[in-house]
Amino acid sequence: MFSFVAEELYKICIMVVRRRTELNVSRWITLVAITLIILMIVIIVISSYQKQYQVFSGKFESSFIESIRESNVICPQLGKELVSAKDKSTIIITRGGIINSCKVDTMIDIESNVVQALYDIRDPQRWNLKRLAGILQQKFEYERMPFTLVLTDSTGKRLDYYGVVNGENLLDDSYSVPMGFLDGHRLTVYYTFPWKYFFILEWRYMIMVWGGIFLLGSCIFMLFRIIRQNKKRMENLELFVQALNHDLKSPINDLKMKLYLIQKESVAPFSPQQQELYTLAQTKTGKLLDSIDKLLQDSIDYKGLHVEMKELEISTFIQQLTEDWQRSVTGEKEIKLQVSMQMENTLIRADAYHLSRAIWNLLENAWKYSDDRVQIDITCRRIGRYVEISVKDNGRGIDKSELKNVFKRNYRIVKGENRKVKGYGLGLSYVMMIARAHGGRVWVESDWGKGCNFVIRIKA
């Protein structure tokens, strides 16, 4: 029967550990997948924007040159002349009665050179950046495309500017062309490709992207909803394991005590067969209690420990706990236990179950690692926002070199008489988990042969 109960409890605890692990792994996989998908969407959108920007830049710069040509052609000033020489390498410009001969690049078609030279005979009243901007703006489907025109002389000094934005607030990209041959002027256009125009141009593509984002958001919502539901189920299952642990340990402890009383109060000595059965029953119940403790502690780690903080009257809590514990241990040792309540306000906030398990573990250790006469002193005191619960014993103590390791999982001190004590090295690591889950810590003050003083400090 004992083996069956232990096996069933083991299956439940393993299920708790496995489901909690799967839940944590699922969370991380979900977060990584969501991050990667969002990154892919951002990269695709930016890549598409850059391609559209390149197309836009080529179109905009071509339209800019065409607009300059149109403006130069329609705005010549009367009384000024422009003639191309027969060899097409020279343009003769007459301005203010002065004839200027300008060498041109023969690699460029004569029409382009002539259009450029028309700037030198422009009518300043008619040729201006506002007119040029109007011509340029008409070449685009969308109105109010942001750009700025800046006219400079041969030294780079600004002569004039016009733009949708202030001339001092120049935009991302620029394109510059020479104006005429005589004055050395240059006209620069500063422009950008706003995201809103990208969205207008790529609206079909963006519908797909936003649709993907909507689907992704729906998946995220559903995943987190499932995770939240699973978390709730895990909390309920953990509470069930804790309750099952308590329900199993109480009758087994009672059984162990009754076995001891039967042997102690027997009117006649046990026969060899009865003694063998008694010893076997005591051994089995002891092993089952150890197995229940080990399985419960294996099913809990610090991150997964679920604590339910409630108001607790510490004086009554400690009194009930010590009475239950004293009833659970056999009379093989003489036990003297004292409780000192050094605090006026005895109301604290804590998880009654886990805190009781932590103190129970310390009481068990005090009993196990002491000689025949066990002296245990429990002291409760309030220090600022914290409450300290100390469990001091007169046991064999712990060597100072071992103190840094006692709270490590599976660590046991096998020195002297301690070798005879069976255990898994899990109890103190479990106590540390509980203290941390309560926003506190645990430490020990001891030396070999001088007993131990374990102190649990929790937020209250």
TrEMBL record:
Residues 243-460 form the Histidine kinase domain. SUPFAM superfamilies: ATPase domain of HSP90 chaperone/DNA topoisomerase II/histidine kinase (SSF55874), Homodimeric domain of signal transducing histidine kinase (SSF47384). Its EC number is 2.7.13.3. The lineage of its organism: Bacteria, Pseudomonadati, Bacteroidota, Bacteroidia, Bacteroidales. It comes from Odoribacter splanchnicus. It holds the Pfam family HATPase_c. This is histidine kinase. One of its GO terms (biological process) is osmosensory signaling via phosphorelay pathway. Keywords: Kinase, Membrane, Phosphoprotein, Transferase, Transmembrane, Transmembrane helix. The chain crosses the membrane at residues 28-49, 203-224. One of its GO terms (molecular function) is protein kinase activator activity. Signal peptide: none annotated. It catalyses: ATP + protein L-histidine = ADP + protein N-phospho-L-histidine. InterPro entries: BphY/WalK/GraS-like, HATPase_C_sf, HATPase_dom, His_kinase_dom, HisK_dim/P_dom, HisK_dim/P_sf, Sig_transdc_His_kin-like_C.
